[in-house]
What we know:
Elements: H1 12-32, H2 35-68, H3 73-100, H4 125-138, H5 169-178, H6 180-187, H7 191-195, H8 201-229, H9 234-260, H10 278-287, E1 291-292, H11 295-301, H12 308-313, H13 322-335, E2 342-343, H14 345-358, H15 371-375
Parallel strand pairs: 1-2
Amino acid sequence: MSKLTATRRLSSQELDAFGAELDALHTRTMAQVGKVDAAYIRRVVRWVRYCAVLGRGLLFVGAIGGAFVPWLLWPACIAGVVFLALAKILENMEVGHNVMHGQYDWMHDPELDSNKYEWDIVATGDNWRHSHNFRHHTYTNVRGMDDDIGYGLLRIFPEQRWRPFYLMQPVIAVVFALYFQWGVAIQELKLGRFFAGKMPKGKLARDFAPVGRKMGRLMLRDYVIFPLLAGPFFLPVLLGNLAANGIRNVWTYVVIFCGHFTADVETFPKDSIRNESRGHWYMRQLRGSSNIGGGKVMNLLTGNLSHQIEHHFFPDVPAHRYAALSVEVREICKRYGQPYNTGSLPRQFGEVTWRILRHAFPSRPRRRVPSGELQAA
Length: 377
C-alpha cells in the first residue's frame, strides 16, 4: 500500500508559484554559503584521510602482528576493514559526489574543483559528470533518457518493457550491489549498443581507455602494492581491501536505490518534458525521488543523499544543508498538496527489494497522471 497521500493536480499558475518558491529558497540558501561550509568539507576530507591511514595501519598490524600474536589477527583486521570502508564511503558520498556537483567550486580550492576531482572508485570523474550530473539530473526518471533507470540491467518499473532476461534480476541485483563501482564505471561505455552491433570497436576502445587506466591504477594500489608491503603476510591485507571495497559498494547501492526506486517513485515518458516549465521540472524531481530517515549519522554516511529530494532540487547546494532545507521543502510540498516521499532505511530498501522481485516477472504499467497533467491541469 502506498505511504503517500494522493497528489493534488496543480494549475499552470500553481506550478509556476511552486517553482518560484523553491527557486527563492535556493537563492536564499546560496546567499548563506561561506566559511561554515568550507570548514565542514575540509573537516570531512581530514576524517577521510585519518580513517584511511588508521584502517590500512590496522590491517598491517593484524596481518603482521597476528603472525606472532594470534589473538591480534581478527580484532585488528576487522577494525581495519571498518575504518577503511568508512574512509571510502565518506570519500565517495560526502566528498567526491558532492564536490563533483560543484558544491564547493566557490572556494577556488584546486583539490575541490568539480571539473578536476577524481574519486576513489574505478569509474572516472569525467564519465560520472556526464552520466550523472548531466543526464540523470537533467532527465531524472525520463524513460529512454535517464540511464540510471535500472542501469541497463534491472527492470524496476512496470513501464519498462519486460524480457525473459529479467527473470534473473534477483541474482543480478545482488551481484550488481557487490560490484557496484564496476557497474558505474562501465555505464557510460554503452556496452549494450556495442553488443547490438550499433557501436564500432574503435569507439569502444577509445572510450574504455581512460576507464581501463583508472581500473588498473586502483587495482594495483589495493590488490598488489598494499598487500605486498605486508610481505609474506599479504593475504589479510588483500582480503581486507577487498572487504572494504565490497562494503562501500553495497552501501552505495543501497543508498542510491532507496533514493530512486521506492514504491511511489515514478518514471515519465519523453513527451512529459516537452516545453517543461521550472515548476514542472521541480515536480518531476519530487515524484522521481525519495528520502531516508535516520538523523545526523545517516546523513553523514549517505553524503546527505538521505535527502535525495532536496539533492535533486538543489544539486549545487552544499549537501550538509539539506537537512535544514528539508523542513521548508516539506512545508512547501504540503501547502501545494504534493506528497513528500520519506521513510526509514529498512522500509525504503524493503520497497526496492520488492520492486526488483516483482518486476522480474511480467507486469502492467500503473495508471499515472497523464504527462500533460504533470505540467498543468
